[in-house]
Design goal:
Structural class: alpha/beta
Helix content: 10-25%
Strand order of the largest sheet: 9-11-14-17-20-22-26-27-24-25
Oligomer: single chain
Largest sheet: 10 strands, mixed
Shape: elongated
Length: 344
């Protein structure tokens, strides 16, 4: 019998009329649950190992709640509530952090990220896209696209409006979890699977994709693309962009170090070290020709952006007379970010 698990969670979700999972909500996912909890769950569900998503009945949820009373009070209380559900229930058990094989598994790993139990790139998301159905996210929950027209008609006949908020594979993070100590001006712009560190503010034009996020504190008024992680005390200005691995970044993992500033409408296609600044309107990619300047602003040599990847204390700017992209030592990043975060 398996005595340890990578993760376990008990959830309630939505299925289409064929019984296929559309989404799952896990209120209290666990990372590395205790062996005693695993043993009790295995006994009730007949679990013998592997990565499994096991549909459970209300009666089984009640039995699990009773079995866990002296083991994990929070999980026991949750299962007591789940036992009253009118919606489908599932117990998802991951023996290892392997490639995904079911929709409930995919949702569990997205929850682990948004609950800050793992950081971006800290969990295996291989195979996630085929397992996330493209559904209509509505004011009545997730609806299979093949069933949407009928549901819209049903609502109209009752004098109601079925509002379709989005059609996507990923739901809003805030519909599943709101991490402590954050501000999110427009929750539609943060996907489930984002990691939003404490002290982070995501303004109206900010966007954070899945498997991406911020250490916090930080101010996000630009785009944090899939796979990008922004370090402590860094700020992304209005309309700026980070190039993710899904949008042209290839295999390069783009990240932003601590104490950085990416100006309005600027962008990066290389990882930044700590205390770097990219001036407004400048997009630096791996192939950008960059003129390195010394302390007297004299040209040292011309390199490509990739040669500066991950280096700290750099200021990227565009020469307003020649148009050349230049790089100097950044002396003001620390003071600038301290001022920005004074009231974050």
């Amino acid at each position: 019998m398996t005595t340890s698990l990578f993760s376990i969670a008990f959830g309630v979700g939505t299925q289409n009329r064929q019984g296929n999972w559309l989404e799952v909500f896990y209120a209290r996912p666990l990372l590395a649950p205790s062996t005693e909890l695993v043993a009790k769950v295995s006994e009730v569900l007949g679990y013998t190992g592997g990565n499994q998503a096991i549909a459970i009945s209300n009666n089984q949820a009640a039995k699990l709640a009773d079995a866990l009373k002296g083991v994990d009070a929070a999980q026991s209380a949750l299962l007591t509530r789940l036992a009253e559900s009118h919606r489908p229930l599932v117990a998802t058990l991951l023996a290892e952090d392997a490639a995904l094989s079911s929709t409930p598994e995919a949702y569990l790993k997205l929850h682990l990220l948004s609950h800050r139990l793992v950081k971006p790139h800290g969990v295996n998301l291989t195979g996630i896209f085929p397992l996330l159905p493209n559904v209509a996210w509505t004011n009545q929950g997730a609806i299979d696209l093949a069933e949407l027209a009928e549901r819209q008609l049903e609502a109209r006949l009752k004098g109601e409006l079925l509002e379709v908020i989005s059609v996507d594979k990923f739901p809003k993070m805030a519909d599943y979890v709101v991490p402590s100590g954050v501000r999110i001006a427009d929750t539609a712009r943060v996907r489930l699977g984002a990691y939003i560190g404490e002290g982070t503010t995501v303004m109206h034009e900010g966007f954070v994709n899945f498997n991406a996020g911020t250490e916090g504190p930080g101010m996000i008024e630009g785009r944090v693309s899939a796979g990008v992680f922004v370090g402590k005390g860094s700020d992304l200005g209005g309309g700026c962009s980070t190039m993710g691995t899904l949008s042209g970044g290839g295999n390069i993992v783009i990240s932003v170090g601590e104490g950085c500033l990416i100006g309005a409408n600027a962008g990066i296609g290389i990882p930044l070290g700590d205390r770097c600044t990219v001036e407004a309107g400048l997009y630096v990619t791996a192939g950008t020709k960059v003129a390195l300047l010394d302390d007297q602003s004299n040209l040292v040599k011309v390199v490509k952006g990739r040669d500066l990847a991950g280096q700290s204390d750099l200021l990227f700017r565009r020469n307003s007379q020649t148009g050349a992209v230049e790089c100097k030592t950044n002396r003001t990043a620390i003071e600038l970010n301290e001022a920005l975060h004074a009231h974050n």
